[in-house]
TrEMBL record:
Organism: Vasconcelosia minhoensis LEGE 07310
Annotated signal peptide: 1-20
TPR repeats: 101-134, 169-202, 203-236, 237-270, 271-304
This protein's UniProt keywords: Repeat, Signal, TPR repeat
Pfam families on file: TPR_16 (PF13432), TPR_2 (PF07719)
Lineage: Bacteria, Bacillati, Cyanobacteriota, Cyanophyceae, Nodosilineales
Protein name according to UniProt: Tetratricopeptide repeat protein
């Protein structure tokens, strides 16, 4: 049965002195409502933040000229993605015009682009102090607080926004995402349902409802909501991936397959979807296509352990030893105490012709097997060491 990704343990099964199969034990990927929302871009419920230009009506001509120079310089740094440099010019602009809220929101936006969400929130607060009913400022504040994992404050910010305009569906979605992080599933559901009442054609709201049902293992309701989202907006890769997970949980990989294919077509960086697609294709015997999707999965998420393991196994079977070495080295960084990973890395190194490194690595695997009291692993590693030492002695 093909199951959604979510590795909990790794079992090792031996095949003589050949490749050790690393078999992941899968559990559903999304076990809580908060984790479900994490997978989707709807969690914070925010519109795109746009860098605003400052108002200059009350300034002297000299001040306007100076401000224009500073903002032009800031824009050059923004165009070069030098946000720290742009912030410095915006700070100078504040010295010219401290009253303009758009300068504060501009600094906030740039801090958010740098991932400094606490600083972004502080500057959005200062912008709001100067223009309290500006909805983009309030969205920026709520989004920044959410990204800073200050969920209680984010929920409060979304509620404040809704006090100004109750018809903001995106704010209801953001409130729902914040409440999920606070483990208030009932509150989140009410917020999402409010978003649908405000905007019955809001695909994000239906996706949020679907993922909430998913996390509660109410798959029929989840599927209904997700399919409704898909009808409203067929370009949401996360919806296709979520529907595929439901079909995998129900052991229907044939129905998951087209959903996964569309998901990765829309967003190739969905590593878990790439992995799940590879698993289905491999089970169908389409080895070349499976290999391609394993490669894409680890390209975008190198620490996706099951994908690295499957990729390494396929590369070893195809005698592509250099690439197998790279895959197992990555795995060994993630799973340094896993003897099976060391064992397979040794096989790849041996196939590459690096006999001494292969022996050193299989000896590391032996030590780990001994430490873990894995008798089968100890026997397998000892046998391989003996064979390889004989080969090394023969070729001296």
């Amino acid at each position: 049965m093909l199951r959604p990704i979510g590795v909990s343990t790794w079992l090792l099964s031996g095949m003589g002195s050949a490749l050790v199969a690393l078999t992941p034990v899968f559990t559903p990927a999304l076990t809580t409502a908060a984790e479900a929302t994490e997978r989707s871009p709807i969690a914070a419920g925010h519109p795109p933040m746009v860098l605003a230009q400052a108002s200059t009506d009350h300034l002297s001509e000299q001040q306007k000229q100076r401000l224009s120079e500073l903002l032009n310089a800031a824009q050059e740094h923004i165009d070069a993605t030098d946000f720290a440099g742009a912030i410095a010019f915006y700070q100078q602009a504040l010295q010219v015009n401290r009253a303009d809220p758009r300068l504060y929101s501009g600094i906030a936006y740039l801090h958010a682009r740098e991932g400094n969400f606490d600083s972004a929130a502080e500057y959005y607060r200062q912008a709001i102090e100067r223009e309290s009913r500006n909805l983009p400022f309030r969205y920026g504040l709520a989004y920044s607080l959410f990204q800073a994992e200050r969920y209680r404050e984010a929920a409060s910010a979304y509620r404040d926004l809704l006090e100004i305009d109750r018809r903001q569906a995106e704010a209801q979605i953001g409130l729902g995402g914040s409440l999920l992080r606070l483990e208030d599933e009932d509150g989140a559901r009410q917020a999402y349902e409010a978003a649908v009442r405000i905007d019955p054609n809001n695909a994000q709201a239906y996706e949020a409802i679907g993922m909430l049902h998913f996390s509660q293992e109410n798959y029929d309701e989840a599927l209904r909501a997700l399919e409704r989202s898909q009808q409203l907006d067929d370009s949401r890769a996360s919806v296709y991936a979520a529907i595929a997970e439901i079909w995998l949980i129900r052991d229907q990989p044939g129905r998951a397959l087209p959903q996964l294919q569309r998901a990765v077509q829309l967003n190739p960086q969905l590593s878990e979807a790439q992995f799940q697609l590879a698993e289905i294709l491999r089970a169908q015997g389409n080895q070349s296509a499976a290999l391609q999707h394993y490669e894409q999965a680890v390209e975008y998420q190198p620490d996706l352990t099951p994908a690295q393991a499957a990729l390494g196994e396929m590369l070893l079977a195809r005698e592509q030893y250099l690439r197998a070495v790279l895959a197992y080295r990555q795995l060994s960084r993630v799973l340094p105490q896993d003897p099976g990973v060391r064992y397979n890395l040794a096989l790849a190194l041996w196939g590459q012709g690096n006999a001494q490194a292969a022996l050193n690595t299989v000896e590391q695997a032996l030590n780990l097997y001994q430490r873990q009291e894995d008798e089968g692993g100890v026997t397998r590693a000892e046998a391989l060491i003996e064979v390889w030492r004989q080969e090394v002695d023969k070729n001296r």
